[in-house]
Amino acid sequence: MKVTRVSKAVVGLATVTALVSACGGGGGAQPSAEDGIVVVTAAQPQSFSYESSATGYESAEFFANTGAGLVRFPYVEGTDGKAAHQQLFEFEPVLAKSYDVSSDGLTYTFHLNTDAKSAAGNSLSADDVIFSFRRKFDVETSIVPFISEPIITDVDEQVRKIDDETVSITVRDPAHGYTMMSLLTVSAYNIYDSTVLSQNATDTDPWGVEWSKTNADFGFGAYKLTSHTPGQQMVYEANPGFALGKPEVERVVQRVVADPGQRANLLRSGDASIATQLRPADQVALRDAGEAQIFEAPTNAYVYVPLTTTTAPFDNVDVRRAFAHAVPYDLIMKDVYNGRLGPLESILNSTLPGYDASGLEPNTTDPARSLEILEQAGIDTPVEFTLTVNNAVPDLKETAVQIQTAAAAAGFEVTIDEVNPAAFQEGIAAKTFQASVGRDYAVVQSPPYVFALFYTPGSPINWPDFTHGPLQEAMADGNAAGEPLSPPAWAKWNEASRILQDQMPTVYIGYVQPLNAFAEDIGGYVFRTDNVIDYAELELP
Asked: What is the 3 state secondary structure string of 3-38?
């Protein structure tokens, strides 16, 4: 299939102006080549090391723009009003200039682009690839082993250096090829500059993780971080040695503006080019006033409520089933998301070939049924619990309030606890919350990856801490059924989806559209499955 690439006619930048005031006042002139790109966002990454802190929007945007992998999903033009987006079933080289697949479908050989240079100016080599893979699997806090099961499990066995310019990756089953290649497109598999990290390693930290938590420039991405003021500002400059060519937008300033309304106002006034993590109501107001662009996309991001299944009250499946009927889905879609949230029946992408949703339906609000389930199970009402939410994410705070209000009539008494982004990421990974409101996505849409990401026992991303024998069996059977998008495999993915709807460890509310907005004259937005902005694609007039 021939793929149409997205144009990158971007004008180079020279300088970036400061925001004129903390209140967002100032002139209404739109950004120009002289002004540069100013992005206002809610927070900063908690760490520059993927192996120590991989979650959160700001982290994902940092990793996407400062890192690069061997391949990526190509970008294609959108249709039917949708934004440009990734083609999820094809791959194009980035740090690999080409790749070959053996006749038995087991060995993928990657020929490296050794002209590519890291942010530190070092040329790419096979040693960087081997080092990177070993770090991902050897660091205790890394999530990569969890999300890679059962595709890549033994780096020493599966990933080999052929020569300085060539590496190979072997899978144990040709059916694993699509998922393996998809994994290589995501930030989890960014390749690192082994020279820089080795120079900053210690006897107790052989992979340089501690150094990389606060030092950023060891990637081969389109941008390098040239300035970091914690809690305030990050400045990115284009990497002239980027494998796909130096981005023409040479400098991007990312400013922390905690209040979402203020972020919208800075975009409205022309003091910012892009605003992220906005309230949907503000997005719609900006669009309707002709003050900004917002985008529709084939989204994969969902709003959900993980229920910690290893502590009360959600260690009881009847409480979980009842709560699923207590959530006011339609009100959240209408009042919080202004139509930018839609129902979902499965966490698997309905656009995948062979998609099977038989027996699956979106959750519905039914307080009478919730009370009935609790009464039949002999559970006293109200069931009390604390719902934790990230205080930097406005739509999720509003969603929590809607749930708190509606759940009272369904037999629940909900206390909302708003915490800062660092405390939220720490608590959700440690499984210390009874329940939380989140927004997340699977970057890779291959079903084995989606299930492994969220429901591998013991994984730090298994937010509800859910281990259930029948689910694990269905996942294993799907992995053993051949090609992951084949009918036999889909039968098992459907079984796993129905088990999740029955056991309800996570209440999925709906798919949400991108929550950013662009100034009218900023082009180049591409929707990615990691839901972040690729700065290298941005265009100015």
From this structure: CCCCCCCCCCCCCCCCCCCCCCCCCCCCCCCCCCEE
Q: Distance between CA 288 and CA 292 in Å, rounded?
A: 8
Quote the CA–CA distance of 468 and 506 in Å, as a whole number.
Answer: 13
For residue range 351-398, list pLDDT tens digits in order: 788 999 999 999 999 999 999 999 999 999 999 999 999 998 889 999
∠ CA 257-261-266, rounded to 5°: 60
* Residue 53 to residue 57: CA distance in whole angstroms: 12
Q: Which domain holds residue 90?
A: 45-216
C-alpha–C-alpha distance, residues 89 and 298, integer Å? 14
**Cα–Cα distance measured from residue 470 to residue 516, given in angstroms and rounded to the nearest whole number:** 39
Domain count for the chain: 2
| Residue 19 placed within a domain | no
Q: How far is residue 522's CA from residue 539's CA, in Å, rounded to a whole number?
A: 6
Structure tokens at 273: 């080019």
Torsion of CA 491, 496, 502, 504, to 10 degrees: -150
Question: What's the CA gap between 381 and 384, in Å, rounded?
Answer: 8
Q: Are residues 376 and 472 in the same domain?
A: yes
Residue 310 CB neighbour total at 10 angstroms: 11
pLDDT given for residue 36 in this prediction = 64
Task: Say if residue 23's pLDDT is above 60.
Answer: no
Confidence label for 3 from pLDDT (cuts 50, 70 and 90): very low
